[in-house]
Specification:
By secondary structure, the chain is α/β, with parallel strands linked by helices. Helices cover about 45% and strands about 10% of the residues. A five-stranded parallel β-sheet has the order 2-3-4-1-5, with helices on both faces. It is elongated, with a radius of gyration of 22 Å. The N terminus is likely disordered.
Length: about 290
């Protein structure tokens, strides 16, 4: 069922901004606003290039019940691009956030709780057998996030489960830039990955198009100001831009609630991003100290 292949080194591909498609609203909202964020504050629905890349790769991998890897820096929209795809397609899917240091037994127990029942208190042999049966019951998709935390034991167990003769499930791994080390801890798992998507920071036209589609605050802003903000703190990272937007809107609402004298950029129901508001927002953002070398 699973076609052996060597995990390729993912190479960034220049993909134009994907046009919005007929997908569930929540999925596309998540790709720009971050997980669990709503759009009641004026955020619009827009798909990032990563959504198209994940959809295209999954279109090959998932029907073959194989494995794929979505990886890149934290905050670039890896998980939300996968969620957008999952909500477009018809197969049942299960999501597991991997905790550090899982053994094979712990991995089996958590996977069984996802796909079968929460009442799991059996010896290891029974848990493993029940998990194999549950995963063979019907085609499905299993997503494991933070795959860079896979131990050698857990990676081997995951490959073993996926390689069972009756296995009917597809695997999507999501990880950061170090995930290759974890996957290659078990060469057979690495060999089972037949598709990869690297999600990188947004740049140039893709960045401006995404921001301007995301919220009116960015739509009316000077593009050069957005580029300067990106160069200084956001670096094409959607997670950073989401925090910037959250803080800018919070400053606006805070001034409104306090009835304080407002800069022109804040003195209306729909704040305008200009230099004063940009500076105030940047000053309010967290600034973590750099790690010691």
């Amino acid at each position: 069922m699973n076609t052996p292949a060597t995990v390729p080194v993912a190479v960034p591909v220049a993909v134009p901004v994907a046009a919005p498609v007929a997908a569930p609203v929540a999925a596309l909202s998540a790709t720009v606003a971050g997980p669990e964020h709503g759009s009641g504050d004026g955020r619009r629905l827009v798909a990032t290039p990563a959504v198209k890349d994940v959809r295209q790769t999954a279109g090959y991998v998932i029907p073959r019940a194989e494995g794929m890897l979505v990886h890149g820096p934290i905050g670039t929209g890896r998980s939300t691009a996968v969620k957008a795809y999952l909500q477009e397609q018809a197969l049942p899917w299960h999501w597991l956030d991997l905790s550090p240091g899982l053994s094979a037994k712990q991995l089996d127990t958590r996977l069984l709780r996802q796909v079968a029942t929460d009442d799991v208190d059996l010896p290891q042999r029974d848990v493993q057998d029940d998990l194999v049966d549950a995963l063979a019951a019907q085609p499905r998709i299993l997503v494991i996030r933070h795959a860079e935390r896979l131990t050698t034991e857990a990676a081997g167990e995951l490959q073993w489960l996926h390689d069972r003769p009756d296995a009917a499930w597809s695997l999507i791994l999501i990880g950061n830039e170090t995930v290759g080390t974890a996957i290659h801890r078990d060469p057979l798992l690495a060999n089972a990955i037949t598709g990869t998507v690297r999600v990188g920071p947004l740049k140039d036209r893709n960045l401006l198009s995404t921001l301007q589609s995301l919220h009116p605050l960015f739509l009316t802003a000077d593009p050069q100001l957005l580029i300067r903000i990106d160069d200084k703190v956001c670096h094409g990272n959607l997670g950073h831009w989401t925090r910037f937007l959250d803080r800018a809107l919070a400053l606006h609402h805070q001034h409104q609630a306090q009835h304080t004298a407002l800069p022109d950029s804040l003195d209306n129901d729909h704040p305008r991003l200009d230099v004063p508001l940009a500076k105030a927002t940047l000053q309010a953002l967290r600034q973590l100290p750099q790690p010691r070398r």
